[in-house]
Structures are given as C-alpha cells and as structure tokens.
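ok here's Putative ceramide synthase lagr-1:
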Amino acid sequence: MEIVRKPTLDYYSLIVLTNQSIVAYWKRFVDNFSSNYTIPFSFFKDLQQTCSLHPQNICNVLLLAVALTALRFMFIRFICRPLAKFWRLTADISGKLPESLWNLTMYLFLWLNTCWTLLRTDRWKYFTDPLSIWDDFSRDRLIPFEIEVVYFTQTAFYVHATYGTIFMEQWRKDSKVMVFHHLLAITLLFFSWAARYDQVGILVLFLHDVSDVFLECAKIFKYLKYRDNTYYSFCEFLSNASFVIFTASWFVFRLYWFPLKVLYTSFYGSVFLGPDDLPFIPVFNFMLWLLFFINIYWFHFILMLIYNLATGKFKELEDSRELENCNSQKHD
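and the structure:
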C-alpha cells in the first residue's frame, strides 16, 4: 500500500484516510489481539506495561500549578490593580482586566516556548512533514529535554487554569465547557507524555495557543478604549484588528491545520507507519477528535459575534460568552 504523505491534507482525504485507518486497525486488532483482549483488564494491563511517568514529574507539575496560582495573585495585586488605578478604569473593567492580562502573559509565554522548541531547528519537522513523527518512533525512547519542558509547563498551566476558571474568573455561558476542555487537555498531556506520544502532543500545543494570544489582546484593548472618561479610538482599532487576527488564526490553526496535520498523522500515520502493537490508538484519537469538535463549538461563538456586529445587534465588540448577570454569579 502506497503511503499518502503530504505536508497538509485536505478534508476529503482526511475522511477517506481515517476510514481506511479504522478498517485497517480493526482488522489488525481482530487478527492479533481480540481473542485475548478483555475490557477493562487488558486496557489497564497495557496502561501499566506501556505508560511510564515518574511520580516526581507529577509532583513537580502540581507544585508548579500551585506556584502559578500564587504568582497570579501577586500579578493581580502588584501589576494589574495599580495599572487599573493608573488608567482610572471603572470597577467593572478593573475586575475583568487582570484575567486577560494574566492569560495574555501565560499564553504568549507558552506559545513562544513551544514555537521555539518546534521550529528553531530542522531536528523536528513535525509541522512541515507530520508523518515524520513516526519515522523514528519508539516507545522506549527518552523524551527530549526541550519537549519535556514544554509538557511540564503546559500541564501545570492547565491544572492551574482549571482552578482559575472555577474559583478566580467570571462565570460565562461556556465556562463548563472551558473546565471540560482543561480537564481534557490535562488528560491528553499526561497520557501522551506517559505513552510517548509527545511528538504529536507538541504539534497540538503549537496549533492551539496562538489564537488565545490575540483573543486576550482584543479584550485588553477593548477594556482600554475608555479611560478617565476619554475615548481612545486607537485602542478600538487595535481591539478590532486583534479580533480579526484571532478569528483568522482560530480557523487556520485549529480548524484547518489541526485536523489536516494532527488528526491526519495521529490516526493514519500511527496505523500505517507506527508499530503494529502500538496501544491506545482509538483512545488517543477519540480525545483529539473531541478536542476538534470543542474548537468547532467555540467557533460558533465567534460567528455569532460577527453576525451580531454585522446586523447591528451589537454596536461594538463584546464577549458573547458572558452572562448578562455575571456579577451575581462571579466567583470570589
């Protein structure tokens, strides 16, 4: 069988190759494993035999998550509140600004770190050649230090972000989905870390963080357009420009490149180029596809906002996820 190897697939080919992968994997499973495979005992046996993550790594992740939470409190107290006071922002905006400033700082740091690790050399060509992930794949290999640092910081951030969404941020229409997303991200990170699917994982991280940077920029400039009873049109322009870039980056990175690079290599590549006894392929891919559908769900909020702006329902850029009575449901 000739391998279809492309830098970026198309949607039709993704569907065709995914169907081929499902059929091939099921045939391999029936021929080699089904008679001896019992659920859930065989699953946990595979988990024990093939996944390894040192307990110290888990402890370090939890410690860093606690440190990030403490750092966030200090960031709000010593940076965000003085800035809000200096700019003479309203009480409502002063409550929203710290969340966006913190998120911008973290997403920018995380994405630049991932970008630097993935693209700075020709050592890893996972973005330009997604199937190269499986060229030297081995479950016994050591994870490169640079990739492990990315996993360490990203996992700790999402552990912190789960706590932050529930206890530190305004409650919105999609906050439950946000918590579910964070828990899914933590599961994917720990699972791919332990199962040595980190090469797929770092590509997932690279394609997801960049759009959040522009979203937070759009929010911050929106908050700053009225300061001390003065309207600043330049901030309005920067907010709208950031939102346009955010929308474009969301579609390109999460709805175009993510399925046509990550979902392409995670199933098709793993089945036809990975080891025959590679475990957890259906579980891993189910979580990745679930992440893709969450991205589609959130994109509908973006389209709703664009529609409301175009039809005049909204006269300016607003966060369509926020509840009307968010102050009464805001977590302390």
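+1. Residues 53-322 form one domain.
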